[in-house]
Amino acid sequence: MSGRMKQRRALNPVDLATLSVNERILRECHNLYVDPENGLVKVASNVGLNLLAPRKKIIVMLIGNHSAGKSTFINWYIEEHVQKTGVAIETQGFTIVTSGRKRESLTGNATLHLFPYLKPLQVISEVVDYLGTEVSTSKQKKFSLVTFIDTPGLVDGEMVYPFDVDKAILWLGDIADLTFVFFDPIGQALCKRTIDLVEKLNTRHGDRLRFYLSKADEAGDESDRQKVMMQIVQELCKRPGLNKCGFDMPTIYIPLSNKYVRCINQIDEVCKDIEKTINQTIQNMLNTLEKDCEHVAELINARIEEDNEAKTYNFHARSRVILLGLAGLFLPFLLFLNFMVSSFSKEFFHSFLGQNGTESLYTCLSPVRGFWQVIPNDYHFTALGIILVVSIMFLLLARWFTRLKPTMNRKERRNLLEKRDYVQNTVKVKKHHLYQEYLEQSITEQDL
Ligand SMILES: Nc1nc2c(ncn2[C@@H]2O[C@H](COP(=O)(O)OP(=O)(O)OP(=O)(O)O)[C@@H](O)[C@H]2O)c(=O)[nH]1
Ligand SMILES: [Mg+2]
C-alpha cells in the first residue's frame, strides 16, 4: 500500500485485551466502514454509492402487554437492575439498554447523538421526550454485543400514550435484528393492540419475530399453561397476517433461587437465539463487507474507464476544433490576402518580402485569383457571402466541439486508484483474516 495512505483507526490496546473475538470483529468491521480517511462509506460516496456502516451490536426489541416482564427480562439478562419493574405501568417510553464503560442514564437528545440511526424517530412528535438510554457496565452473557430496546407496555382502551406508540414500535421493528413478543398468562395476553402490532411486524419482518409465554411460573399447572398458550395461538391465528400454523412459543420465567417451580423454563433458548443472531450478523456483515469492496472497486474501475473515454473524446474534439477553426479562418484569410495583393503594387511587397517572397506570394495566390476571375463581376458579392457563411458555419461547428467532457486531473486519478487498491487488497485481506478468526473461534468452541 502506498505511503500516502494513512493507517486505519486502530483499536486501542486496552480494548484489544478486554474484547471478545466477536466484539473485536464487529468493531473492526465497523471501523473499516467509518474511518474518516479511507473508510468504505467515504470511498463509496466519492463514486456515488451510499453505504451504511454496520452496527457494532445487534438490536433486540422487547414488546408485549403491560407487566409482561420485559424490563425484568433485561435486568435478568444483564444481571443488573437498570430498568424499573413492577405491577404498575412502569416503562412509559422507549429505553435503550446498552453496555458501556460507565453506568449512566441519558436523555432523548443524548440518545439520538449516541445512536444516530435512531434519528428518523424524531418525526414521531413527542417521542424524543420519552426516549432514554441506560448504559450499564455489565459484561454478562452476550450483553457487550447486544442493545436492548425496552418498550412501553401495551394496553387497550382508555390508555392514552403521549406519542404514536404503534408507529414508533413499527419503525423500531424495521431496524431491530430481533423482536421478542412477551405474552404473559395473567395479564392482557390477548391485548388487541399487541396482536395488531404483531400482525404488522410479522408481515414486515416475520423472520425476526419471536414469541414467548413469559412469567410461565405464574401460569398455574401444566394444563393451565397449555390452555393459556392455546388461547393465545388461536387468537393470533385468527389474523390473516398471522395464520401460519405451528407457532413456536417457548415458556420462560425469571429463575429465582428460592422458588421451586415445576415448569420447564426455556429462557436459555432466548439467550441461544440472541447468540445465534449475533453469529449470523457477523457472517452477513463480513460477506457484505467483501461485496461492498467489490462494488466500490467496480465503480472506481467504471469511473476510470469513463475518464479514459472522456479524455479520448476530448482529444478528438480538440483536433476537430483545430481543423474546423483553421477551415473557418483559412478562406476569409485567403480572400483578405488576395484583396491586399490586388490593392497594392508589386513594389510595395518587394520592400519588405523581397523578390523571392513576393513571387511566392503571387504564386500561392494565383488559384484564388484564377477562381475570382472565373466568377463574373456581378456575382462577386454573392460568392463573398457564400464564402463567409461557410466560414461562419465552420467556426460555429468548432465552437460546438469545444464543449469538452469533464476529466480527472492526475492527482484525482491517482487518489482514486489508490483507494481501489486499498479496498481491493487491504480491506479484503483484513476481511479474510477476520473471517478466519471468527471460524477458528467457532471450531475451538465446538472442540471443547
Ligand atoms: N413470577 C414472575 N414474576 C415476574 C416475572 N417477570 C416479571 N415478573 C414480575 O412482573 C411484574 C412486571 O414486570 P416488568 O418487568 O415491570 O414488566 P414490563 O413488561 O416491563 O411492564 P411495563 O413496563 O409496565 O410494560 C414485576 O413485578 C416483576 O417482578 C417472572 O418471570 N415470574
Ligand atoms: Mg417495563
From TrEMBL:
TM stretches of this protein: 321-341, 379-401
Domain annotation Dynamin N-terminal: ranges: 60-156
Coiled coil listed as a keyword: no
Record keyword Hydrolase present: yes
Alphabetical keyword list: GTP-binding, Hydrolase, Membrane, Nucleotide-binding, Transmembrane, Transmembrane helix
A Pfam family annotated for this UniProt entry: Dynamin_N
Subcellular location: Membrane
InterPro entries (UniProt xref): Dynamin_N (IPR045063), Mitofusin_fam (IPR027094), P-loop_NTPase (IPR027417)
PANTHER family referenced in this protein's UniProt entry, alphabetically: DYNAMIN N-TERMINAL DOMAIN-CONTAINING PROTEIN, TRANSMEMBRANE GTPASE FZO1
Protein name: Uncharacterized protein LOC106459540 isoform X2
Organism: Limulus polyphemus (Atlantic horseshoe crab)
